[in-house]
Amino acid sequence: MVDVSSSTASLATPESPPARRWTAKNRFSLGGTAIWAVLFLLIVAPVGCFLILAVSPHVFQQGPQWFTLTFIRQAFEGITGRGIFNSLWVSTLVSFLAVSTATTLAWLVHRTNIGARRLWSVSMWLLLLMPTWMMTLGWSDLLQPFGAAHAMGINTRWLYGEFFGPLGIIIVLTSSALPFAYFIVSAGLQGLGPEFEDAARIHGAGRTRTFATVLPIIAPALLSAIAISFAETMSDFGVAFTLGYHAHFPLATYTLFSAISNFPANFSVAAVIAAILILSTVPPIALQSVVMRRSKSYAVLSGRTRAPRRREFGKRSRYLVSAGVGLVIFIALGVPIVGALVGSFVKNLGDDSGGGVHLTLSYYAQVIHPSIVNNSLGSPLLLSNQLGLVVASLTGVMAIILARRLVATHGGWSQRITDTFLLGSVAVPGVVLGVGYIFFYNLSFITHHVVDIYKTLPLLMLGLMASALPGQTRFMAGPVSQLQPSLSEAARVHGANRFRTWRTTNMPLMSRVLVWGWLLTFTKTISELAISQILYPPSQEPASVTIQSYLANFQSGTGTAMTVLTLVEMFGVIALALGIYRLVTPEGWRRTGWSVVD
Amino acid sequence: MQTTHHTINAFRLRFATVLAAVTVASMVLLTGQAHASSNPGFVLYSAQGYDHAAVAAFNATNPGFTVTLNDNSTGPLLEQIQAEGNNPKWGVLWVDGATAFAQLDNEGKLEKNSVPNVSFNSLGKANVPADRSFTPTGLTVTGALCYNSAKITASQLPNTWAQLLSSKYAGQLGMNDPSQSGPTFPLIAGVMDQAGRYKSGSTAKSVSAGEKFFSSLRKNGLLVSSTNGPTLGAMEQGSINMAIVQSSACYGDELNGSFPSIRVKYLNYSIALPSVIGIDGRQPTIVRADAKKFVDWVMSPAGQKVMQTGDPQGDSLFWPVLNNENPANKIIPPLSTTNAITISPYLWGPLEPMVNAWFDKTIVQI
Amino acid sequence: MRDSQMPQPVGVVIERLRKEFGEKVALNDVDLTIEPGSFVVLLGPSGSGKTTLLRCVAGIERPSRGVITINDVCVAGPRTFVQPEKRQTAMVFQDYALWPHLTVRKNVAFPLASSTRLKEQKNQRVDDLLERVGIAHLASRYPNELSGGEQQRVALARALAADVGLILFDEPLSNLDADRREQLRIEIATLTREAGATAIYITHDQSEAFALADRVGVLNHGSLVQFDTPENIYRHPTNAFVTRFTGVAGECPVVAVKSSDDDHFDVWLPFAPSHPFPALGVNCREGDSSLHFFVRASGVLLNAPGGDKGVCAEVIDVAFNGRGYEHVVKVDDQMTLTKVFSNRRFERNANVKVSFDPSFCFVMAVPGRLS
Q1: Is residue C238 within 8 angstroms of chain A, CB to CB?
Q2: Are C177 and C148 in contact (CB under 8 A)?
Q3: Which of A92, A175, A372, C263 is the most exposed place for a label (fewest CB within 10 A)?
């Protein structure tokens, strides 16, 4: 009859103004300034202080030159050059592997009827919370000659040599990146309605072809997963330092550490390497932006979203596929845990004395009743928990504010800058952040006229917050972007002020995200090593540092026992937090919104 | 129904409040650590195993100020010192090895003439620098030959460094990586010193002689691991039977039972590795005076006793640098049996980055 | 202020309202006065600015310029901006906007939280509303357990619970099935008027607008093109856009016109060069080459071939609509007529004769671009 304009209507509304948030312009920019001020103090200033040494060592009395390009040249030569190259290709490979595996897993868990779905989802969480140095510890304990595998009667000699090489590096790094990718892809799948698959199947596509046809619809999620896997892998230190070293396979983070570990340290070369790590995240973000510009919308999660039907496998296929998934997860998560557990219970694991396998509780006894009082695990673990509590809470508040901002400016250049900044921050190795904190917060100007917190717990807390904030923000951005804006608008129109709106609509829907984000930072804080080691105040040593000193000094039995106990305690806290959540929250909160396990 | 609902809500509210209070309390607890005093003392940066005991004992003598202990591994300590630049927070540094101190002295950061007036033995004297800017507090030795007595007997062991190159020992020897393990560079420097028969002047000849030696060792199957942990672990697994490491590591493992069959032998020479203490020369006068008091105490009989008892299976296993003093444990043989030589940290220290890089590239082949 | 038993209907005055999103102008100096108690429908295609206008009135969008007055109180102006929660309005959203973690009862009770009524009174009111809207049996369910129609009823009940003088509707029926739509439209019309509130309702569906409205405002590209009763808009559209948007059976470029009296013209069309059609002129001048002829569906009469009344045409399509038949009839290449009603069925490809009722024919200038 008459015209209909050619706007590309999204699912929810045929006509929607470009920016769906209403706020006073002035208020927004004041809030924005405050946020960037905090980010400056937390991340930009310390990292910037470190990076500037790449070209200007004299700024922090690290060399005579005010400006030079020598170190840039140096960084690309020799072992550091090899390290950069290796890191780039390994991270690229790992990110693709992680995302492919994660997508398949996510699809199987959320869209089919494979068995033990809850278990796989929970395993992903455990994998997320486990640091790489714990994973390599477990693998080493398992595979080393006369290691745990040997203790269990399995010959792994052939695998040991292979594992301590690029293969092992890729396995552990992929396992580590897997959960990030899994959760991002899962979130993307949640917004993918069943109609797309139905359409494909009706028109003759089998399972695989359906999968392949529908997958591009969640391209933004896939690319986001690739970007974050890439950044996390580039900045990983645990694997680089242990497996990488043993495999004679230098990675950029290892060469960065080497540059620092001489005295005098070569901070300038380290700064160049750090700059490269950060810059390497720009291409993935650019790629992500390009794809997102072409695909229109994040699907909106609302009360109307129905759960998609699950693909039914035949009985036999079901067992096979479930077993396959179980195997993958066992390799990623189970193996290191078993290795670590056995390492803590077997006397002198790795000892070729031929005396057979002796189980022992002596390592645990050492931990609980240490002969050397100074090195007990008790007070370090308590300190780590306190740190975790405070850091997770503060970071949670900041992350949700930042995530909302990130989502609110959807598509604009401001969002892209924030997104790049956050991803780049993920790529900053902890040691760079730690040393940068010393540079910045030990400046005379700062200590005399602003605040003197160098060598205090608040500084360590800031450092840990800075380390956790980018990851947690990105983690929350997905679910926040899926919040239906009209829910808050409805509350406002019907008489609720901002606070009541947040309390009654946003917070309940975000409550699970908030809790899991909190737990993520909590566990990350407890297991964080690099920043903790360089910033902890006198006589206040966190647990991760204690554990490392045992592991490095050939007391791996005790060190492993400490690791296991810390892990157990961490998971205990998680269970406690979830229990409290269940107890404290109304039923309606748990029915809706973003969900951890299906 | 309504009242139960009420009660549940009230409970939830209370619970949430308690939780919030706990968080806030933790924050207060963690941050409220300030304490003011007229003489605040200084911060001791130390990597020594007995430092907790030493600081506690010293503070207990009521010196009029407090020593705050920043205990960490040597690597992070030195990173902190370097990053602190011209705004140092450390008053005293106490670590194994003198090369870091030589570097600091060259940068003009150490307090000169801070060495206490005590009776050093010959090796002690040899490790006191000309400008008396740092003090050796004890001695261990690197380049000791630890071996697995269950796999190789004393009679089968080599007696000299040169004999290590023999095919008899192919693939049986291990050592640490100098870029990861602090005490290893002095070992390499000592080997270079001896292999090139260094007397004076340029070190170039000695360096290349040492490089040649290690290359030959590598051809003979030398296994390099990052630190003591993996090196001794390799010995335990049977990949190697001997390792050239720091003496205290071997004695420690023998004592604490983690490696009961480990024993130590000294070849024709080993390299003295002093534990060294030095004062930051840029601190205010009162702080430097306090620091001097602490150093004096460390070198006094009381301090030396604490050093020997504070870490009985670790760093306490050292040889004294003072006359009329014996090692803490019978397991430690007389110093003369170690054939220990002293190398100048001022001479060899500056070469560390270059040598370490060469070692990683050529020997470790990373 | 929210607890009077019967809310006073409020008037809304909008003056020179302008809203820009960067380069894009969503509202272009709109002036509109809404009488208290009236049911106003804003009609327009996507991108016409109707949603923006509604959101500005609600307070969830801040205008770039202009003044909005609700009940003689300025809520948006050069130095004023009243927050949405203080504007005493209620809104029914296109996507229902029900809080998924609250039961139906809690959703409906939400606006009453700030009321000073006693708890029993509040509960009673919620019960009454649930009953009135026909969803009392769903009170303890959660939104995702309800169908679309049920959810929209809950949203309606919630808006009514607010007890306010102004209710806003953002295309509430767009996401519903056809049969539900009709039902709910009637509920909305009835309940809103029962409540005595002023209503601003936006839609892109012309028939919905005409069925509901006391007055219709037609928007196009951010400008208010015509604001009048449905009858006047239907009978006296002000330009080609309004004509087209409010239901045209067919349209055809004009060969020539000649004025016959004040507003009426005789129009020669390409397929009937010797037989002029009388039509109402809008912005019509003789000699203007951009003139088009428009005829409403209700002005097209369908007859069997033979007889000399009307022009020859061919039936392209026929559809039974319960009461009779709607045909698509092709007069010639330049003119195809849709929604041509007849009690009698003419088959596809049949030859027929069509004639036009002059009171539903218009001739008007059409600007260069399609508007």
Answers
A1: no
A2: yes
A3: C263
Residue of B38, B129, B130, B63 lying closest to B296 (CA atoms): B63
Whether chain C has a CB inside 8 Å of the CB on A18: the answer is yes
- The model carries a pTM of 0.81
Per the structure, the complete domain to which residue B256 belongs is given by 141-272+347-364
C-alpha of C105 from chain center? 31
Say whether pLDDT at A298 is over 90.
no
Give A148-188 pLDDT, tens digit per residue. Answer: 677 677 776 777 777 777 888 999 999 999 998 888 888 77
Q: How far apart are CA B86 and CA B111, in angstroms?
A: 15
CA dihedral of residues C38, C43, C46, C47 (deg, nearest 10): -70
**Strongest mean pLDDT among A206-220, A347-361, B74-88:** B74-88
Rounded Cα–Cα distance for residues A565 and A275 (Å) = 37
**A204 to chain C, minimum CA–CA distance in Å?**
29
Which amino acid makes up residue A394? L
Contact status of A24 with chain C (Cβ, < 8 Å)? yes
User: What was the pLDDT predicted at A481?
Assistant: 75
- Name the CATH architecture for the domain at A69-297+315-360: Orthogonal Bundle (1.10)
Tokens of C258: 């000649």
Q: Which of A262-266, B89-93, B126-130, B268-272 has the lowest mean pLDDT?
A: A262-266
Per-residue pLDDT, A216? 76
Do B194 and B278 lie in one domain? The reply is: no
d(CA C369, CA A263): 76
Pairing of strands C73-77, C361-365: unpaired
Distance CA A25, CA A37 (A): 18
Place of tokens 């000791």: B144
Using the Cβ of C336 and the Cβ atoms of chain A, whether some distance falls under 8 Å is answered with no
Which of A61, A539, A552 is the closest to B229 by Cβ?
Answer: A552
Write out pLDDT tens, residues C274-329: 889 999 998 888 888 889 999 999 999 998 888 777 888 999 999 998 889 999 99
| Same domain assignment for residues B154 and B127 | no
Residue of A15, A26, A585 best to disrupt the C interface, most CBs of C under 10 A: A15
Band the pLDDT of A412: cuts 50, 70, 90: low
Query: Which ipTM score applies to this complex?
Result: 0.83
Going from the C-alpha of B346 to that of each of A344, A386, C42, C302, the distances in angstroms are 44, 45, 88, 112
Q: Which token pair is B81? A: 């010192």
Q: In angstroms, what separates the C-alpha of A496 from chain B's closest C-alpha?
A: 20
d(CA C184, CA C38): 19
Please name the amino acid found at residue B63: P
pLDDT in tens, B76-98: 899 999 999 888 999 999 999 99
Instruction: Tell me the torsion sign for CA atoms A15, A19, A20, A22.
Output: negative
Q: Is residue B14 part of a domain?
A: no
Q: Which of A583, A481, A566 is nearest to A524 (CA)?
A: A566
Instruction: Say how far apart CA C252 and CA C240 lie, in whole Å.
Output: 12
For the cut 50, the answer to whether the pLDDT of residue C235 exceeds it is yes
Q: Roughly how many angstroms between the first and final C-alpha of chain A, as a whole number?
A: 46
Whether B335 is in a domain gets the answer no
Backbone angles phi, psi at C276, to 5 degrees: -75, 150
- The CATH code for residues C247-365 is 2.40.50.140
Per CATH, the homologous superfamily of domain C12-235 is P-loop containing nucleotide triphosphate hydrolases (3.40.50.300)
How do residues B347-362 score in pLDDT, each as one tens digit? 999 999 899 889 988 9
Distance from CA of C183 to the nearest CA of A (A): 21
Count of CB atoms situated within 10 Å of the CB of C351 = 12
Chain A residue with Cα closest to C336:
A1
Residue B34 lies in a domain: no
Question: CATH assignment of A35-47+365-598?
Answer: 1.10.3720.10
Domain boundaries, chain C: 12-235, 247-365
